[in-house]
Q: What sequence folds into this?
């Protein structure tokens, strides 16, 4: 699988991460699933409602997830999530793994001293339950 995401979607994600630094930002990835390629067409901000430690944790309000899932049910659908890792690598944490769902793409933007850095994409594998990095094309 590959994730293709337009620069016009990545730039607002970078801005979101800079605005929320030193806390993690989070949001939804909207787009099309073409089998081996997930085409992101929109990034939609969400609020990080994690009760504490937002510098290393994010939680999206479950009602907001359900709302986005209902809104996008046709060819264009909710295909994943994005979040930032302030002053940490763009690799999933144990907390990210614990909360992940199959099928969705998870993108992570590393942010160092408020400056956006690496941008990676991951999918959850079932056996063993782990994240697998997938190629990301910023187009």
A:
């Amino acid at each position: 699988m590959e994730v293709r995401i337009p620069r016009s979607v990545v730039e607002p994600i970078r801005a979101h991460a800079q605005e929320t630094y030193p806390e993690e930002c989070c949001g939804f990835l909207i787009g099309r699933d073409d089998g081996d390629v997930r085409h992101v067409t929109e990034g939609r901000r969400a609020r990080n409602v994690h009760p504490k430690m937002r510098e290393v944790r994010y939680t999206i309000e479950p009602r907001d997830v359900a709302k986005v899932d209902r809104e996008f049910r046709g060819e264009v659908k909710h295909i994943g999530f994005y979040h930032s890792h302030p002053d940490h690598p763009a690799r999933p944490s144990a907390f990210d793994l614990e909360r992940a769902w199959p099928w969705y793409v998870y993108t992570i933007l590393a942010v160092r001293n408020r400056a956006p850095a690496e941008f990676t994409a991951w999918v959850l594998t079932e056996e063993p339950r782990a994240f697998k990095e997938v190629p990301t094309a910023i187009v």
